Amino acid sequence: MNSRIEVVRTTSENPDFVRLIKIFDAFLWERYPELKKDYWGNNLIEFNDNVILIYLDGKAIASGCFKKYNEKTVELKRMFVSPEARGLGLAQLVIKELEKEAKNQGFETMILETLYKQIEAISLYQKVGFKIVENYEPYVGLTNSICMSKSINVLQ
Questions:
Q1: Burial category of 135 from C-beta neighbours within 10 Å (exposed 0-12, middle 13-18, buried 19 and up)
Q2: Which one-letter DSSP state was computed for residue 24?
Q3: What is the pLDDT of residues 39-87, one digit of tens each?
């Protein structure tokens, strides 16, 4: 049986995005309870109209967004794939769609922050061309953070 994948560009007010982010936050705080006080404020999403949702057979199962960091750079945020949909290449699809949109808006670089225990995420980001860089604000001095960067001037 073939599954139907749909890519939807939306906003942070989309109820499916809100639902996925609640699941994602619960996962993070279960895995990193000791970090909640240091990181909670970094995970709040103000209104964002650069959200990608991936639907599999009509169910939202992956999300991501970006926000402007500076004039030439956006920060990848809230990347999440539901556990039942992992291994299908959907995270790469979300990143590719967000990179295209950021480039269309004139941005040249995409940055991100993840936590050191997110080995699978770090591996994924490296696979799609991100390189580990010095921690940027607001993650400077936070040793649990891994920051990464990628030029989106030339997309594969």
A1: middle
A2: H
A3: 555 555 678 999 999 999 999 999 999 999 999 999 999 999 999 999 9
* Residue 81 vs residues 4, 34, 90: alpha-carbon distances, Å: 16, 23, 7
Tokens for 153? Answer: 């001037």
DSSP string covering 92-134 = HHHHHHHHHHHHHTT--EEEEEEETT-HHHHHHHHHTT-EEEP
Q: How buried is residue 53: exposed, middle or buried, by Cβ count under 10 Å (0-12/13-18/19+)? A: buried
Helix (H/G/I), strand (E/B), else coil: 73: strand
Question: Rg for the chain (alpha carbons), in Å?
Answer: 15
Q: Which residues contact 117 (CB under 8 A, 6 or more apart)?
A: 31, 32
DSSP state of 21: H
* Measured distance CA(42)–CA(44) in Å, rounded: 6
